[in-house]
Each structure stands twice: as C-alpha cells, then as structure tokens.
Amino acid sequence: MKPNVIVALLVGLVLGFVGGRAATGSKPTAGNTPSVAQGANKPAARAVDPTVFKVPIDGAPTKGSVNALVTLVEFSDYQCPFCSRAHNTVQQLQKDYGSKLRVVMRQNPLSFHPQARPAALAALAAGEQGKYWDMHDLLFANQKKLDAESLEGYAKQLGLDLAKWKADMADARLGATIDKEQALAQQLGASGTPAFFINGRFLSGAQPIENFKALIDEELAKAEGLVKSGVAPSQVYARIIEKGVERAPSRPGQQAEPAAAAKKIEIPADSPVFGPASAKVTIVEWSDFECPFCSRAVPTLNKIKETYGKDVRVVFRHQPLPMHSHAKLAAQAATAAHAQGKFWEMHDKLFANQRALERGDLEKYAQELGLDMNKFKADLESSKTTAKVEADASAGMAVGANGTPAFFINGRFLSGAQPFEAFKPLIDQEIAKADKALAAGTKAEDLYAKLNQDNVNAAPAAPAAPAEPAVQKVELGNAPVRGAKNAPVTIVAWSDFECPFCGRAVPTIEQVEKEYKGKVRFAFKHQPLPFHQHAKLAAQASMAANEQGKFWEMHDKLFANQRALDRESLEKYAQELKLDMNRFKAALDSNKFDKEIEADMADGASKGANGTPTFFINGRPLVGAQPFDAFKRVIDEELKKAGVAMAAEAK
Question: Which is the most buried residue in 262, 489, 517, 539, by most CB within 10 A?
Fold first, then answer.
C-alpha cells in the first residue's frame, strides 16, 4: 500500500473510530508550567458552540421532571472509562440542580469495547421491567465485570424476571434501538463517548463539572426567560430545539462524504457480486469480516435482496481495518474461496464466526465448504490475493470509505450499519431513475454506468476547506520534556506505546528535532487506548523509568519493541537501562502512576486527543502520523510569529 494511502487511512480511522469532537478551549491543569498556546496569561474560557441540535428524546430512558428547564441527553458506552467518570459528574449535577435538570440516556456502544453492546442490551432489557436506571448504575459501578455471567448476576440482584430479561436482551427490537441511536449519534457528530447535548448544545467528553455547569446555567437563564414569556415548563425543551440543526456539519479532517454525495465507483471484474449486471440498483459495499458493525449490516442486505430481487446487485469490496488483527487474513480467505466460486458461502461463515478467525479456523471453514485445500492454502498466502485486498482498501480510501461498513448505492454514499429503512428510500429513488432511463432507451447493461455518472453530476459541489481547529491551551504539567527550555515552539504529543501509528511518528519527530534544534522542544503525554492490552502497563513502565531519570531511553525501547510489552519484557528493558530494579518493580506493582496517566488521558480527551498520536504545536492540533512536511508547515508559521528565522534560512 502506498505511503499516502496509509497516512490517509490513519487520519480517517483516528477521526472516525476512536475520536469524538471536543468544543474549543479547556480547563487548565495544575502546575506552574507556562501554557504553549498564545495568550497564556489570560484566564481560560470555555467556548462552547452555540449551535442547537434537534436531539429527540422520545422513547429513551429519562430521569427527572417533565417540567425541568434543562434537558441533558447523553450518548454513552458502559465499557468506556471516560463515560464512567462522566457518570459521576452527571450524578452530582442531578443533586446540584434537582428538578431543574432532566437526564436522558442514549446508547452508543463503541466497536472496540466488546462488552459494551451486551451491557447496553442488559440495561434496556432491565428497562422493560422498570429498572433501567438501577441497571445503569450497577453497570458503571462494575465496569470491569460486564461478561454475560456478571450481567445475569446484576439482573438477579435487581430482582428481575430472568426469563423475560433474557428474552428481551435477545429481542431484535432492542438491538434495532441501539443501532438507531448509534446512527443518531453519528448524524449529530457525536462519534466518541461520552457525548452530551444540553438543551441541544454539544459538549464532548468527560469534562470537568465546571464546564457542564457553565453551559447549564447559561441554558437555564434562557429557559427561565421562555417561561416568563408564557411557555409552559413542559414545553421548553421542544421550543428550544424545534428549529435546531438535524445533522452536524463535516468536522475538520473528516473524510466521509455527506449522505447526499455521490462518487464514481468502479466495479472490478474480479469482485464478488450477488445479482445481475443489468440490475437497476448496484450497491457496492466496503466491509471488514471482524467488524461488529459490518456483521449487523448482513441481515439488512439480506432483506434488501429478498425485497428487491433482481432489481438490486450487491458488490463486495474489502476494507480490513488495522485495529482488527484477523480482518486482513479473513479477507484473504474470502478471496481464496472466491477463486473456487464459494465467496458468499465463506462470507456467511466468517460473519457467523467473527470471534474465530485464526488461520486454523479459516482452514476449517474451507474444508466445510468442500474447497480444494491445497489451492485454498496457496491462494491464502499468495501475493496476488494480498494485492487484491490492498487494492480494494486503497480504492475505498480514495472514495471516502475509511470506516466500515460503507455503502455506495449507484454511487450515493451511505455510511454505517444502517437499518433497512435508511436504504429503502435511496433504492426506491434509484429504481425510479432506472425505469425512466430504460424508457428513454438506455440499455440494461449500460444502466449502472449512466446512473452512477448522473448521481456524480448531480452531487453538490464540495464545500470549502474547513478552517483549522481552534488553538488549545495545553499545560505541560509534569510531562517529560526534551529540548531547549526557551524554545519558541513546543510540541506536545498524546501517544500510546502499543499504537503502530505512534511508532511510525517517532522517526518524524526525531527529524523535526534535528532540523529545528534549539527552536523546538517536545513533551510527551499518555493516551493508552483501551483496545491495546499492554499500553497502560507500558505507560506505567515509562513513568517508573522517568522517576529514575530515564524516561526517553525507555520511550525509545518501548517504541522499538511494540510487540513485546508484557511485564517480563518491560523488566528486561529496565535491566538494560540499569535501573534500580527493586524500585522499578515496586512502582509497577503499586500502580502509583495511574492517576497521572489517567489525568493525561482526561486532559487529552477534553482537547479532542481521543485517537493517537495527536500533537499540539504551540497549541495547534495536528492529528495522526503525519509526514515531516505537515509538521514543518506549522512550525515555520509559529517561528515566523515568534520572529525567529525559519529553519531553511538558518542553514
């Protein structure tokens, strides 16, 4: 895969899967270190987007009075540590504001939290017996115990009718509720968790309580004004959001196209296809066999096939995501099965067994399908198969299919595991266009090319490039720093020692430090992502080394050995660095750096650094393992502001 494609994939993934949008500004952290942003001597002000979103609350679990003047809608994930922290904040807000505040819960279990969706189903099923909030509190109180046995234990503890609770958990109706709420979250721009809408105004992340109170107080004053003008308290929320925005505008760096957009989508001759080439509607899908959202889309596509028959053709293309360790091999297995005419059979087996995608599992499925095993094994390992999968992924990136699943309906983009009802209007519109084109003399075999091009021609013009995200006030606190103390440019990185993209950024930062020696200093903050099992322990090890004056030496060893970050390996690196081993081991055993690491994580999340790596150059955000030139552009601008000659002139 080409380097520019890898970079594009990174940015799309960081923004699309693990990031949430944060409002500008932040609460300063403790410490006397000067801020790296402009205006460091001014008090921090929390600027919140004044946009009001139309956030429906019908049918969602609600706590508080219908006459409350402020409604807080939360999109949350029971396995998300930030949501757990925010849960405590929301409980305190309820105590502080009493009957003036109403809380509404919406479900947004993230794909990399495997127990989040079952937990959400458990809460909704408890809600069927009037115990949603009781289960809600239990789940957050026991966030590390969300396995099936524990969930059942909580149901027993609440005195639920277990048979009914289990039946409700398995009911497709509750699953559809979660799917719709996740789609709503994406529509509103709330891709990360937790995300809050306070009388329709967006606040992202586990923010300090002061930030919530500032916004609640502001909205409370407006609501009281409405009541004085004659609006009934029970109608205040409806009045506030009635003219609200229904869809968030594209975020800076967001790659996905809006639903109305269309792309020229080619159909390779060797792609798996279900349905006739003369179909009135062609749906091209980019998918990942390990992605839970892709799995949820399978029944929807089956319903489309049953409903529309020969009027619809489905084309499958591969987009195995880097965070799914078995996805690429599974894609290669499906391609190898396709070579023997059994793609769709393998497709169904892979999605039916998403948690069993090891090499041995794949060979077992091939045997069950009666494939020629010698050919299957050879094709599975061939460079031709790998090239096919990578070509699909690259083509997907080029048209904005960065996340999965992604669909193009005669070229019109539809993102995510949407319900059948989201596909139906688009398909019906395209069938009507096809009928009209056929009546006008278009040949059936030319139908897709014509309709795809017509949709591209009718698509709205691309919007102007968005402005750069706001400069953040970034406190260094106790973060490890290297470089001249008086350097005019400070780069602060939020990073994860197990993240491959963070590893790729290390040589770039070294190049920056070499090119701008004396003019740039570099600070490191921790953001161990929850789906990297060794990342937090590695972060603790780096801080234990920092305690002995060897942070950067340990930093380099950890990034040089990203696949060996277990406890034994960390102790080996500490020995190589000649650390006091008793002190090092005691530090790891005591978890003494947990609070400091978690403070870094919360601080990063409040500034939008939910994915890794995220850099702030004098407070200006730069997301992902960007090339040197991306850093150079911002650094040169900052040096110019500071009146320092640019690096090129210094040479």
Answer: 539
**Summary count for the chain: helices (H), strands (E):** 25, 15
Radius of gyration of the chain (CA): 26
pLDDT computed for residue 648 by the predictor: 44
- Whether 322 and 288 have beta carbons less than 8 Å apart is answered as no
CA–CA gap between residue 424 and residue 605 (Å, rounded): 37
Residue 620 pairs in a beta bridge with: 617
Q: In whole numbers, what is the pLDDT of the chain averaged over residues? A: 85
Q: How many angstroms separate the CA atoms of 35 and 476, rounded?
A: 7
Q: Which residue has 């030496």 as its token pair?
A: 553
Residues 309, 311: Cα–Cα separation, whole Å: 5
Q: Tell me if 489 sits within 8 A of 639, measured CB to CB.
A: yes
> Residue 643, Cβ neighbours under 10 Å: how many?
7
Q: At residue 527, does pLDDT exceed 70?
A: yes
CB contact at 8 A, 308 and 281: yes
Owner of token pair 């009957």: 99
CA distance 483 to 473: 20
Amino acid at the residue 366: A
**What digits encode the pLDDT tens for the residues 201-239?**
999 888 889 889 999 999 999 999 999 999 999 999 999
Rounded to the nearest 5 percent, the helix, strand and coil shares of the chain are 50, 10, 40
Burial of 458 (0-12, 13-18, 19+ CB in 10 A): exposed
Q: How long a stretch of residues is the chain? A: 651
What are the beta bridge partners of residue 63? 103
**Unique residue bearing structure tokens 């060893």:** 557
Nearest Cα to Cα of residue 422 among 565, 532, 221, 283 = 283
Task: Tell me the CA distances in angstroms from 108 to 20, 194, 195, one per residue in order.
Answer: 12, 9, 9
Distance (Å, whole) CA 232 – CA 199: 16
Q: How far apart are CA 420 and CA 304, in angstroms?
A: 7
Q: Crossing angle, helix 594-606 and helix 535-546, to 10 degrees?
A: 110
| Cβ-contact 420, 299 below 8 angstroms | no
**pLDDT value for 609:** 79
pLDDT in tens, 457-481: 887 665 444 456 678 889 999 999 9
Do the beta carbons of residue 606 and residue 27 sit within 8 Å? yes
- Tell me the whole-structure pTM to 2 decimals: 0.43
- Token readout for 513 is 């430090």
Give the neighbor-by-neighbor strand order of the sheet with 481-482. Answer: 481-482, 520-526, 489-495, 614-617, 620-623
Q: Are strands 101-107 and 70-76 parallel, antiparallel or unpaired?
A: parallel
Give CA–CA dist 508/625, Å, rounded. Answer: 8
Euclidean distance between CA atoms 642 and 268, whole angstroms: 53
The total of other beta-carbon atoms located within 10 Å of residue 194's CB is 26
Q: Do 208 and 154 meet the contact criterion of CB atoms below 8 Å apart? A: no
What stretch of H or E contains 566?
Answer: none
| Beta-bridge partner residues of 182 | none
DSSP 401-454: --SSSEEEETTEEEESS--HHHHHHHHHHHHHHHHHHHHTT--GGGHHHHHHHH
Of 417, 397, 398, the closest CA to residue 321 belongs to 397
Cβ-count burial 374-399 (b if 16+ within 10 Å, e if not): eebbebbeeeebbebbbebbbbbbeb
Q: What is the C-alpha separation between 109 and 118, in angstroms, rounded? A: 9
Place of tokens 């965070």: 323
| Residue (of 18, 22, 14) closest to 608 by Cα position | 22
Whether 344 and 310 have beta carbons less than 8 Å apart is answered as no
